[in-house]
Amino acid sequence: MITCYLRYTIDPYKHEAFERYTRMILPLAAEVRGRASRRLPAPRGAEHIAVHLFSFPSLAEYERYRALVRDDEVAKAAWRLAEETRMHRELRAELHAPGVRQ
Fold first, then answer.
1. Beta bridge partners of 51
2. Is the dihedral of CA 68, 71, 74, 76 positive or negative?
3. Over 60: is that where the pLDDT of 100 sits?
4. How far apart are CA 84 and CA 78, in angstroms?
5. Which of 3, 62, 70, 79 registers the highest number of CB atoms within 10 A of its CB?
6. Phi, psi (deg, nearest 5) at residue 2
7. Average pLDDT over residues 23-52
8. Structure pTM?
9. What CA–CA distance (Å, rounded) separates 37 from 31?
10. Is 67 helix (H, G, I), strand (E, B) or coil?
11. Is the pLDDT confidence value at 101 over 60?
């Protein structure tokens, strides 16, 4: 199992834009046997943190997902939305797999 963990620091005034982005991007994982989940903005002082998790049965499925989103029009529209609204201040990504140390 491969899990991609994305941690966003959201602009507190742009939660609606982030919700739209989430609804666009998360369903794409299912197209390649992946699962996606989310934890949407939780106020933490002045920061608002959101998390997306994408899990795939294998590294090959994860790579198929990456290829899919690179060319997918919905994914491209989601990224444009993120750029235009500047909804997140920071994005950190980590890839976790059993037996892999980071």
1. 7, 39
2. positive
3. no
4. 10
5. 62
6. -115, 130
7. 80
8. 0.78
9. 14
10. helix
11. no
The set of residues, in sequence order, having a beta carbon less than 8 Å from that of 93 and lying 6+ positions away, is: 4, 5, 6, 7
User: What digits encode the pLDDT tens for the residues 40-55?
Assistant: 766 666 668 888 899 9
Amino acid identity at 43: P
Instruction: Tell me the pLDDT of the chain averaged across its residues.
Output: 84
Single-letter amino acid code for the residue at 4: C
CA–CA distances in Å: residue 58 to residues 9, 33, 39, 63: 28, 10, 23, 9
Residue at token pair 């989310």? 38
Task: Tokens 């750029």: give the residue.
Answer: 83
Report the residue count for the chain: 102
For residue 9, which amino acid is it? T
Angle, helix 59-71 to helix 73-85, in steps of 10 degrees: 70
Q: Quick one: pLDDT at residue 49?
A: 86
Question: Cα separation of 27 and 55, whole Å?
Answer: 12
